[in-house]
Design brief:
Layout: H1 11-28, H2 34-53, H3 72-78, E1 80-82, E2 95-97, H4 99-111, H5 116-135, H6 148-171, H7 174-193, H8 198-201, H9 211-223, H10 225-238, H11 243-252, H12 258-266, E3 279-280, E4 287-288, E5 291-294, E6 306-309, E7 339-345, E8 349-353, E9 386-390, E10 397-402, E11 406-407, E12 413-414
Antiparallel strand pairs: 1-2, 3-12, 4-11, 5-10, 6-9, 7-10, 8-9
C-alpha cells in the first residue's frame, strides 16, 4: 500500500470520522453483518491508535526521498492509496483505504436501508445466497461436512426473513427487515466457517496428511533415496539462519538506510531474476545482439540509480541456452571479454564488481545447484565478478553492450 490523504485531513478531521464510525456501529449494529462490522472496526481501531500514538509513523522507510509528512500516521489512517479493493466500485484497480473511504462505503451501502426498494433488494439477495449455500452443503461429522446446528440456524434465519419480507408490504418496518437480512448473512458466515477439516477429526494430522499418512511419510523419508535427498536439502535450508540471525534481521530492518550495508555483511540479499523477460524473435531472424541500459530516469539523485548484473542466461523455448560468450563476466582483465561499456549520456559509472556479495556470493553455506532451475550458475572461469552500472544524476545514462552477435531461431520465444 502507498499512502495519501486529502488536504483537509488532519487530527481534527480524523477525530470526526472516528465519532461517525462509532455512532454507526452503536446505532446500526444489529442491521450490519458481522463481517462488515469487523471490517469497519478494524479501520476504526487503526484510526484510534494513530490519534493516540502522536507521531509514530505507520511503517519504516529506507529511502530518503520518502520523507514522512507531519502527522503521517493520522493521514495514513484517514485515507491512502491501495490496490487491495476492500471499498471500491466494480472494475476499479486503484482505490482508497482507511477510515474515510470505509465510512463512505458503509454509509452508501447501509443507506439503502432507508428506502423500501433498497431493503427489499437486500432481502432477496440474502435469501438467494442462503438457498444456494444450503443446497450445496451437507451436515455431518465427516471431512468437508458442515455443523448441524449452524445449518439449522441458517434455515431458521431464512424462514424468518421470508416471513418478514412477506409482511413488509403491510408493516413497512424497514428496521425489522434489515435485522432479518443481517441475521441471514451472519448465519451464512457461521455455516461456512463450521466446515470440518481433516485436523478437526484427526488431531495428529497436518493440513495435507492424516496421522497415519504422516507416519508413512516419515518412513519413506528414511528409506526412499529421492525423498531422503529432498528432506536433507530442506533441513539444511531451514537451518541456514539461527534464532540470533533472525533477531538481528528484525532489529536492522527498523533502522535507516545504513542497515542495508550491515545486512550485507551478514546475509546475502541478492536473488535470482529467473525468467523475468520473455520475447519472441522476429520471423526470419538469424542473429541478435544485446545491451543492458540503465535509463537516466533511474539515478541516485532522485532515488535508486544503480544495478548489478551477473550470470546472464537466455533460454530458448525450442530448448537450450543461447550461446552468449562470457555471460558470467569472469573472463577478461581490465574489461570483461565480449562486453563493452558505453557512456550514453553524462558521466555514468560502469565498472566490474569484485566485492562480496555483489558478485554472486550467496549465503555462507551455499546449497547444491537445483537441477530444476533454468538459470543455474555456470562454473566461473576466473574470480567471481559482475557488471555494475550507476547513474549519479538525471543527466547520466550508461550501458553495457555485447560485442558481436549470437545465433537465434526466428519466431521462437526466449526467456
Amino acid at each position: 500500500m502507498g499512502n495519501m490523504s486529502k488536504k483537509k485531513g488532519g487530527r481534527e478531521h480524523l477525530t470526526s470520522l472516528v465519532r461517525r464510525a462509532e455512532t454507526m456501529l452503536d446505532q446500526r449494529r444489529d442491521r450490519i453483518t458481522d463481517g462488515s462490522a469487523h471490517a469497519l472496526q478494524d479501520v476504526l481501531e487503526q484510526a484510534k491508535r494513530a490519534l493516540k500514538d502522536n507521531g509514530e509513523i505507520p511503517f519504516v522507510r529506507n529511502r530518503e526521498f520518502l520523507i514522512p509528512r507531519t502527522e503521517e500516521a493520522v493521514h495514513f489512517a484517514t485515507r491512502r492509496y491501495t490496490m487491495v479493493p476492500p471499498f471500491t466500485k466494480q472494475g476499479a484497480v486503484y482505490t482508497m483505504y482507511g477510515l474515510e473511504p470505509a465510512l463512505e462505503w458503509f454509509e452508501n451501502r447501509y443507506g439503502l436501508e432507508e428506502t423500501n426498494e433498497g431493503v427489499t433488494k437486500k432481502a432477496a439477495l440474502a435469501l438467494e445466497k442462503a438457498q444456494s449455500l444450503l443446497s450445496h452443503t451437507q451436515a455431518g461429522e465427516g471431512i468437508g461436512k458442515y455443523d448441524t446446528l449452524a445449518r439449522t440456524a441458517l434455515c431458521q434465519a431464512q424462514q424468518e426473513l421470508e416471513a418478514d419480507l412477506a409482511s413488509f408490504r403491510q408493516s413497512l418496518d424497514r428496521t425489522k427487515l434489515a435485522r432479518s437480512v443481517a441475521a441471514v448473512f451472519n448465519r451464512k458466515r457461521e455455516l461456512l466457517h463450521s466446515r470440518r477439516l481433516l485436523m478437526d477429526i484427526d488431531p495428529g494430522a497436518s493440513l495435507y496428511f492424516s496421522e497415519t499418512e504422516l507416519v508413512e511419510l516419515r518412513q519413506a523419508v528414511r528409506t526412499e533415496p529421492l525423498l531422503c535427498q529432498r528432506y536433507e536439502q530442506i533441513e539444511r535450508l531451514s537451518g541456514v539462519h539461527s534464532l540470533e540471525n533472525l533477531e538481528l534481521v528484525s532489529k536492522l530492518m527498523l533502522q535507516d538506510e545504513e542497515a542495508y550495508e550491515e545486512l550485507n555483511r551478514h546475509f546475502y540479499l541478492w536473488s535470482s531474476t529467473d525468467k523475468i523477460v520473455n520475447f519472441r524473435a522476429p520471423h526470419g531472424a538469424e542473429t541478435a545482439t544485446l545491451s543492458f541500459i540503465l535509463p537516466a530516469e533511474e539515478n541516485e539523485a532522485e532515488g535508486l540509480g544503480h544495478v548489478w548484473i551477473d550470470d546472464l542466461d537466455i533460454l530458448s523455448a525450442s530448448g537450450g541456452s543461447l550461446q552468449i560468450l562470457n555471460g558470467g563476466f569472469e573472463e577478461g582483465e581490465l574489461l570483461p571479454l565480449s562486453w563493452k561499456p558505453e557512456m550514453r549520456r553524462g558521466r555514468p559509472i560502469l565498472s566490474m564488481e569484485e566485492t562480496y556479495p555483489f558478485c554472486g556470493g550467496g549465503d555462507r553455506t551455499p546449497e547444491p545447484v537445483n537441477p530444476s532451475s533454468q538459470a543455474a550458475r555456470r562454473p566461473s572461469e576466473g574470480a567471481p565478478r559482475s557488471l555494475y552500472m550507476c547513474n549519479p544524476g538525471p543527466g547520466d545514462e550508461g550501458a553495457w553492450n555485447y560485442e558481436g552477435e549470437f545465433a537465434i531461431e526466428g519466431g521462437t520465444i526466449t526467456l
